[in-house]
Design brief:
Elements lengths: L4 H18 L7 H4 L6 H6 L1 E6 L13 H6 L3 H10 L20 H10 L4 E7 L26 H12 L3 E7 L6 H8 L6 H18 L3 E5 L6 H4 L1 H10 L8 E2 L31 E6 L19 H13 L2 E8 L8 H17 L20 E8 L2 E8 L8 E4 L5 E9 L5 E6 L5 E4 L14 E8 L7
Parallel strand pairs: 1-2, 1-7, 2-3, 3-4, 4-5, 6-7
Antiparallel strand pairs: 8-9, 9-14, 10-13, 11-12, 11-14, 12-13
Helix pairs in contact: 6-7, 6-13
GO molecular function, one term: alpha-L-fucosidase activity
Enzyme class: hydrolase
Function: Alpha-L-fucosidase is responsible for hydrolyzing the alpha-1,6-linked fucose joined to the reducing-end N-acetylglucosamine of the carbohydrate moieties of glycoproteins.
Length: 467
């Protein structure tokens, strides 16, 4: 029998390559850590929900930074505490009032599923230091010892995984405002790392091993550089040896010197929305309450984003290659208030019709139209065909005609339709080098949306084949 030695050699080399790839070890430095490919599920997901809940939900005024703002003499909070609480009242005295009597993790999960979000990030610990799980490193300042007397992180994780197909992640603050150990490290010019070794790192290892989050959303990095936090050592373990090493993603908040530079994806600050392509995979973390991530009892309706404003953020963000992380604040009783529910459900209704233009999409050759404002593009592959989607954020006023600019290069097979509406639309070349799309009269009960509409375009010259 003739043996083809070349085939065997090729197979052996291929197996060696596979083994080396699967066993690649990331070194505790940014060059190595940043070389890790971003797990594909994150880029495909596009829409996530961030949940802020903590002791700050009890006073629920001004923002989730209540403790810091009060202690630094913000006048409105000094007056609020003087008028409503005894003189010797302390911030930890709020913790027993975090009652969570109406908290139902499965109700949360069902609502979040209906929002159309593909991942959820829960605040496990904010800068106040209170942990929403029974941490071994936060004695008497956690949700089991004081307040709800429940493992909030565990309940939410279980409900999300049981009732939805969403990915589950955890937000964790590296530092704590008034922790005396951290304050001593700061006073030492961060030449000591007692807080990191006693609090930050033990907590991070604890939540990863116990809850296996698919996202570690770090915050509080502005307090010190990443070498103080031992960030690269933790990330090397996370990517090499942790129980989530193959699919976990991380953001860029691992040190004051890392923002918008390092990490699996970048936030570049809250509410980051550049409206242009960014060189890194990025995320726009925004709050539905314009002024706070935590729930505010005294918020006015005008303080909340409208559905149209939210969809504008979604369109701009996804068009430019980002994900959007939409924050909601929780009451001390553990409820998501009707105003948040309404926005999330309307977002979910829109995504149910138009998700083809969002989930799994990629930026097109152009992000916004060069003739008509409020038009943002995405592209996606359906089976073997590449489609371009024009997201209209306002209804055309000129005889129901949408003028798209020279970005649209047609062929004899170009077809235009609208997601959620049966039938194709007619079009004609326009003076701008693009096309005018004529939208026929659509009965109100057949209108696919009232806030934003998506044109689906096939058969263009200027599309590229996705890998």
């Amino acid at each position: 029998m003739h043996v083809n030695i070349g085939i065997y050699v090729t197979l052996i080399l291929l197996l060696v390559c596979i083994v080396q790839t699967s066993s690649k070890k990331y070194e505790p430095n940014w060059e190595s850590i940043d070389s890790r490919p971003l797990p594909g599920w994150f880029d495909d997901s596009k829409v996530g929900i961030l949940i802020h809940w903590g002791v700050f939900s009890v006073p629920s005024i001004l923002s989730e930074w209540f403790w810091y703002q009060w202690k630094t003499k913000t006048p409105v909070l000094v007056d609020f505490m003087k008028e409503n609480y005894r003189p010797d009242f302390t911030y930890p005295d709020f913790a027993p009032q975090l009652t969570a009597e109406f908290f139902n993790a499965e109700e949360w999960a069902n609502l979040l599923k209906l929002s159309g979000a593909k991942y959820v990030v829960l605040v496990a610990k904010h800068h106040e230091g209170y942990t929403m799980w029974p941490s071994n490193y936060s004695w008497n300042w956690n949700s089991m010892d004081v307040g709800p007397k429940r493992d909030i992180v565990g309940e939410v994780a279980d409900a999300i995984r049981k009732n939805t197909d969403m990915h589950f992640g955890l937000y964790h603050s590296l530092f704590e405002w008034f922790n005396p150990i951290f304050e001593q490290d700061r006073a030492n010019g961060f030449k000591t790392q007692d807080f990191v070794s006693m609090k930050t790192m033990p907590e991070l290892y604890e939540i990863v091993n116990k809850y296996k989050p698919e996202i570690i959303w770090s915050d509080g990095s502005h307090a010190a550089k990443d070498d103080y936090w031992n960030a690269t050592n933790f990330l090397a373990w996370l990517y090499n040896d942790s129980p989530v090493k193959d699919y976990v993603v991380t953001n860029d908040r691992w040190g004051v010197n890392d923002n918008c530079i390092h990490g699996g994806f970048v936030n570049c600050g809250d509410r980051f929305n550049p409206k242009v392509l960014h060189k890194r995979k990025w995320e726009n973390v925004m709050t539905l309450d314009r002024y706070s991530a935590g729930y505010r009892r005294n918020a006015k309706l005008a303080d909340y984003f409208s559905v149209h404003e939210l969809l504008t953020e979604v369109a701009q963000t996804v068009s430019c290659g980002g994900n959007i992380l939409i924050n909601v604040g929780i009451t001390k009783e553990g409820t998501i208030t009707p105003v948040f529910q309404n926005i999330l459900l309307k977002l979910g209704g829109w995504l149910e019709v138009n998700g083809e233009a969002i989930y799994g999409s990629r930026p097109w050759l152009y992000q916004s139209d060069n003739v008509t404002t409020d038009v943002w593009y995405t592209s996606n592959m359906v089976e073997q065909d590449v489609f371009v989607y024009a997201i209209l954020l306002s209804w055309p006023r000129n005889n129901n005609t949408v003028s798209l600019g020279s970005t649209i290069m047609t062929t004899s097979t170009t077809v235009v339709s609208m997601l959620g509406y049966k039938g194709n639309f007619s079009w004609r070349p326009n003076a701008y080098g693009g096309i005018d799309v004529i939208i026929p009269p659509i009965p109100f009960n057949l209108m696919p949306s009232v806030d934003a509409w998506v044109l689906k375009i096939s058969g263009l010259k200027n599309v590229y084949k996705r890998n």
